[in-house]
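The protein record now logged underneath.
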Amino acid sequence: ALPRADDLGSAKAQGNTMPTAAACCALCAETRGCRSWSWNVGGQRRCYLKNAAQAKDLKPAKGAWSGIMA
């Protein structure tokens, strides 16, 4: 996971509330078709699963963590 990063992949669904970035990553790993994820650190702690992303697509985003599935 990369702190303060977000990716440009399309969100597969509306964000789910998750307690941690690790939980968001685990949800992506368990979800068919999930290729990357973003988790917002702010009050709602939303997890967004994405259907595509590449490392070159990561961009700085204050208050977000993102990861790309291997």
Remarks:
- Helices lie at 21-30.
- The chain has a mean pLDDT of 80.
